[in-house]
Amino acid sequence: MRLSKSLVPTLREDPADAEAISHKLMLRAGLVRQLAAGIYVWLPLGQRVLDRINAIIREEMNAIGGQEMTMPVLHPAEIWRDSGRWDAIGPEMFRLKDRNDRDMCLAMTHEEVIAWLAAREIRSYRDLPQIWYQIQTKERDEARPRSGVLRTREFVMKDSYTLDPDVAALDRSYAAHEAAYRKIFDRCGLTYRVVQSDTGMMGGLGAHEFMAPSAAGEDEIAICGGCGYAANVELARGVPEAPVFPSWTREEVATPNARTIAEVAAFLKIDPRLTIKSLLFVAPKAGRVLVLVRGDHNLHERKLARALGEEARPGHPEEVLQHLNAPVGSVGPVGARVPILADEALREGTYVVGANREGFHLRGVVPGRDFQARFVDLHAVAAGEACGHCGKALEVERVIEIGNIFKLGTKYSEGLNAKYLDESGQERPIVMGSYGIGPARIAATAIEQGADADGIVWPASIAPFDVHIVLVSLRDQAQIAAAESIYAACRAAGLQALLDDRDERPGVKFKDADLLGVPVRVTVGNALAKEGVVEVKERRAPRREQRVAPGAVVEAIRALAR
RNA sequence: CGGGGCGUAGCGCAGCCCGGUAGCGCACCGGACUGGGGGUCCGGUGGUCGCAGGUUCAAAUCCUGUCGCCCCGACCA
After folding, report:
1. How many CB atoms lie within 10 A of CB A382?
2. Are residues A302 and A400 both part of a single domain?
C-alpha cells in the first residue's frame, strides 16, 4: 500500500475524548474513528489488523472442527420469547418493530438462533457433536460505552456454539475450545490468564474467562502465586486476616456525629476491622435484607446477587429509617426485624455495630450470640488476603476480558425444543456451550500491552503490515528507484508492505512510522548514495538495525523476524 | 439511572466570571527556502461559538430548556 494514496489520517496530538492508551493510539494512528458513543468506523489500517486477527481465529476454530456460518443480525422476538430472554433482558437489547408492527430486535448474541437451527436440523445422536461459529457484528445498547473499542455498542465478535449429547461430551468440546483459545491468544502475542468466572444469573455448568492484564481493563481478577488459583473477583474467595479482638463486654456507646466506618473507628480509637458495616438491600422476591460486611471490606454486589438468587438494590435512606428505626449511619443487626446476611469473615469475633439508635453504637457484639445471620462470602477480595486453597497471599490484577468459554447446558435447547434421539431411542435435550472472542479487544489489548512512548508496537502476527518502507527524499531518483524495487521485492516475497512515498519531511515520516508500529522499518535515505545501503530496523526495543544492500532487504527482514 | 466535566475552524485550545469587531497553535491552499526525527519565512482559505427559546440597544459570554460527547459509579444474563 502506498501511503500517498491511502486513508491513514494520523494525528499529531492526543484526541481530547480519549483516556485509555489504546484509544488514543488507535485514533492517532488512524485505525478507527468514532461515529457516536460506542460506535466506530474501522479505517483501512484498523481493518487490516482485524482481518489478521480473524484469520488466526478462523484457522484455530477450523482446526478443532468448527464450521463457520453467517446468522441474521435482525431477529424476530419469537425466538427470544421462547428462551425467556425477551422479558429477562432490559434496555440493553435494541428493539424495534417491522412494518407490520411485529416485535423484532437486533442480535446481542446468537444462542437462540443456534438452538432454533439445531431444533430443525439435529435429530440423532449421530448428528452430534457439532461446533458452529460466526464472526459477526453484535448490537448491545450498553449503559456506558467506554475506553475506545474496548466497550462499544456495536462490535464484531467471534462466537462459537457447541452441540453435544451429554455433559461428558460438552466437557470435551469445552476443553477443545480452551486449547484453541490459548493458541489464538498466544499467536496474537498477548499476555493473558485463564480464570474461573461467574456463570451469572442464568445458571450454566461452569465458565472461564481469558483475561489480559492492562490498566485499561474493566475487570479484576485475584491470583495466587502459590497454587495458581485464579478467579474473577466476582467469584474469588479470599480469607482476610482477622484482627485481635479486645475482651469487650456488650454495651451501648455514644458516637455523636460519627456516621461512617472511618468516623466511628476514629472516634472510638479502634481498628476499622473491629466494626461491622450494615447495609439495607431490597430484592424483588426476598424483600428487605440487612447485609453485613466487616468495616474495612467492600460488599461485592454480584456475590450478594448470587447469594440471594436475584438482583437487589440498596435501600433508600427513608426505607432504612422506616424499617430499622435509625438513620443510615447508626444501623446495626442487633434487634433488626429483617433477615440478615453476613460475610463469612464475621463468623468469629467481637465487634462494634450500629445501635439502631441515632448517635449510638453497640460495642462487644458477637455474631451468632447477639444476632442470627446466614453466613456467605460477600466481600470483594482485596490484595493480600490469604488464598483459600494454599494460604499464600492473593494478588489482585486489573484485566481486559478478551475471551470467555461457557457451559450453557440445556437452557436454550429446552426453550427452543432442540432435542435428539439417543442410542436407545430416547428423546433428550442437546447440551450446549458458547464461546466468545472479541477481535477488537485483541487489537486494543495488543496496543495496551505493547505500546511505548513513540506509539504502537504491534505483535508481528497481527500488525497491519510486515514492513514499513520509508522513502526519505522524493528528490533523489536513486532513492525512489531503490524504494520501489524494495517495495516490489517485499510483495513478491509475500510480505505485506507499506511504502511511505509522501512528499513529507523525514521527521514526519519517522514519527508516523513509530506511531503506526509496523514491526520492521526499511529506511531508504542518505546512506544509499553514500554507502549503497538501506537500514532495516525493528520497531520493538532494543530496535536492532542492519544496513544492507537494497537487494538484500527481504533476507534481512526474515533474519530480524527470527 | 446517580455524580462530575466538556461542546468555539479538520484537530488541540483561549475568550465566558465582568455582554460591545471571534482569536492562538497545528493542519489545509499559494510562494520561497530547507531536506535523517513533527523545519523556517511570506501570503491566504476556513467558524450559524452544539441546538432552541428568553433577557438586552447589543449574547460565544447572562437565564431556561434540549441534544451530544467524555470520566467515575450502577449495569454488562
Report:
1. 15
2. no
Nearest nt by C1' to A204 Cα: B77
Note whether A62 and A135 are same-domain residues.
yes
Let me know the angle formed at the C-alpha of A251 by A247 and A257, rounded to the nearest 5 degrees.
110
d(CA A297, CA A261): 10
- Residue-wise DSSP of A288-342: EEEEEEETT--B-HHHHHHHHTS--EEPPHHHHHHHHSS-GGG--STT-SS-EEE
Separation CA A459–CA A185 (nearest Å): 11
Q: Which three cell numbers stand for residue A134?
A: 460466526
Walk along chain A (562 residues) and give the pLDDT tens digit of each residue. Answer: 999 999 999 999 999 999 999 999 999 999 999 999 999 999 999 999 999 999 999 999 999 999 999 999 999 999 999 999 999 899 999 999 999 999 999 999 999 999 999 999 999 999 999 999 999 999 999 999 999 999 999 999 999 999 999 999 999 999 999 999 999 999 999 999 999 998 876 668 899 999 999 999 999 999 999 999 999 998 999 999 999 999 999 999 999 888 888 889 999 999 999 999 999 988 888 888 999 999 999 899 889 988 888 888 888 777 888 888 888 888 899 998 899 999 999 999 999 999 999 889 999 999 999 999 999 999 999 999 999 899 999 999 999 999 999 999 999 999 999 999 999 999 999 999 999 999 999 999 999 999 999 999 999 999 999 999 999 999 999 999 999 999 999 999 999 999 999 999 999 999 999 999 999 999 999 999 999 999 999 999 999 999 999 999 999 999 998 8
User: How far, in whole angstroms, is CA A305 from its chain's centroid?
Assistant: 20
Residue nearest to nucleotide B38 (CA to C1'): A508
Query: pTM of the full predicted structure?
Result: 0.94
Instruction: Report the number of distinct structural domains present in chain A.
Output: 3
**Which of these, A210, A216, A219, A213, lies nearest to A436 by C-alpha position?**
A210
Closest nucleotide to A514 by C1' from CA: B37
Whether residue A530 sits in one domain with residue A400: no
Q: Could you report the predicted ipTM of this complex, rounded to two decimals?
A: 0.95
- The order of strands in the sheet holding A340-343 is A313-314, A276-283, A287-294, A340-343, A374-376
H-type helices in A100-161, by residue range? Answer: 111-121
How far: A16 CA to B6 C1' (Å)?
10
Per 3-state DSSP, what percentage of chain A is helix, strand, and coil (rounded to 5)? 30, 30, 40
CATH number for position A222: 3.30.930.10
Residue A462 in domain: no
> Is A245 domain-assigned?
no
What is the span of the domain harbouring residue A166? 3-236+396-447
Distance in angstroms: CA A458, C1' B38: 22
Chain B, protein-covered positions (CB within 7 A): 1-2, 11-13, 25-27, 34-39, 68-77
Question: Are A353 and A339 spatial neighbours (Cβ–Cβ below 8 Å)?
Answer: no
Q: Looking at the domain assignment, is residue A112 inside a domain?
A: yes
